[in-house]
């Protein structure tokens, strides 16, 4: 499998992704604001508006990291299980939740590819900027399908490639030249941010990813692009 430009074993990829997020965990939130000019907040708002979590619903926020999506859903009254493979990211998230006095959250370290939850436990499954870091994406999608109840909904927020004229070129420049530099200056970690850029480039295009979601068993799959396609919200239903 690919890790950035390198070809590595699946175990090695999972290990290196772990290193990336352990390395950036403490600076993760400030880096998101810096690199997206604060726009990731709007994309996340838009995403949660699509999910429409209702009071009392149980949502699994997979690859939930430091809690940005989970917090938005908990504020709407959902019971959210925040899961992530990385204990350092979860630790930052738990601290933030405590500071904000948020309720309705539980935290669990899990690999998206092999969840320990029983079948049909959740009303909705969300994964934001997480799936492209997963080594075996089809396995993660099958697990998402398994843990959702019938009538449950799947939502994924992920980067894509924009089709606005001229945007792709500017974005490529920004991603190649600027993001690793910001990573170096602020998080003292150029390589991690180089990996993040490369992982966006390698992620399947919306039509291909939609097909993968269907292959995992989801029905009525579809997607909506935001910001000219730079960001994409995929959804599907378990029927
Ligand atoms: N969802 C959060 C957000 O939108 O701010 C965090 C996104 S962060 C870019 C990606 C997260 O995916 C990291 O916290 C990382 O640890 C997690 N991750 C990577 N591989 C994973 C896996 N196999 N299972 C669960 N989480 C994983």
UniProtKB/TrEMBL annotation:
User: Could you say which EC number(s) this protein's record lists?
Assistant: 2.1.1.163, 2.1.1.201
Keywords, sorted A to Z: Menaquinone biosynthesis, Methyltransferase, S-adenosyl-L-methionine, Transferase, Ubiquinone biosynthesis
Which pathway does the UniProt entry assign to this protein? Quinol/quinone metabolism; menaquinone biosynthesis; menaquinol from 1,4-dihydroxy-2-naphthoate: step 2/2; Cofactor biosynthesis; ubiquinone biosynthesis
The name under which this protein is listed is Ubiquinone/menaquinone biosynthesis C-methyltransferase UbiE
Q: Does the keyword Repeat apply?
A: no
Return the HAMAP family for the record: MenG_UbiE_methyltr
Extract the Pfam families matched here. Ubie_methyltran
What does it do?
Methyltransferase required for the conversion of demethylmenaquinol (DMKH2) to menaquinol (MKH2) and the conversion of 2-polyprenyl-6-methoxy-1,4-benzoquinol (DDMQH2) to 2-polyprenyl-3-methyl-6-methoxy-1,4-benzoquinol (DMQH2).
Q: Which family does it belong to?
A: Belongs to the class I-like SAM-binding methyltransferase superfamily. MenG/UbiE family.
What InterPro entries would the database entry show?
Answer: SAM-dependent_MTases_sf (IPR029063), UbiE/COQ5_MeTrFase (IPR004033), UbiE/COQ5_MeTrFase_CS (IPR023576)
SUPFAM superfamilies noted in UniProt: S-adenosyl-L-methionine-dependent methyltransferases
Q: Which reaction does it catalyse?
A: a 2-methoxy-6-(all-trans-polyprenyl)benzene-1,4-diol + S-adenosyl-L-methionine = a 5-methoxy-2-methyl-3-(all-trans-polyprenyl)benzene-1,4-diol + S-adenosyl-L-homocysteine + H(+); a 2-demethylmenaquinol + S-adenosyl-L-methionine = a menaquinol + S-adenosyl-L-homocysteine + H(+)
What organism, scientifically named, is this protein from?
Answer: Sphingomonas sabuli
Q: Name one GO biological process term.
A: menaquinone biosynthetic process
User: Membrane spanning segments where?
Assistant: none
